[in-house]
Design brief:
Blueprint: H1 12-32, E1 38-39, H2 42-53, H3 55-67, E2 76-77, H4 87-90
Parallel strand pairs: 1-2
GO cellular component, one term: plasma membrane
Pfam families: YidD
Subcellular location: Cell membrane
């Protein structure tokens, strides 16, 4: 999933972080070829993490994910964790 969840509009900081990831995906990644050991790829994970969690937490999750991308990690399926539900968001339902 590389698109934003429905109804979520990223803030200015999140949009500023999404631009270099999209640049990487369009121009740099095709030259490097498929090297991903995770699904979704780190760039797709970064886009989704920033869209779901915002600039600060999304960047932290992306940096952690990239830090796990090395020859000694087996890789595999690693989805973005869901946004935690806060108690004030569930009231009134």
């Amino acid at each position: 999933m590389t698109e934003q969840p429905q109804g979520v509009v990223p803030g200015l900081a999140a949009r500023a972080l999404i631009i270099p990831i999209r640049f990487y995906r369009a121009f740099i990644s095709p030259m490097l070829g498929p090297r991903c050991r995770f699904y979704p790829s780190c760039s797709a994970y970064g886009l989704e993490a920033i869209a779901v969690h915002g600039a600060l937490r999304g960047t932290w999750l992306t940096v952690r994910r990239i830090g796990r991308c090395h020859p000694f990690h087996p890789g595999g399926i690693d989805p973005v964790p869901p946004r935690p539900v806060r108690s004030h968001e569930t009231q009134g339902r």
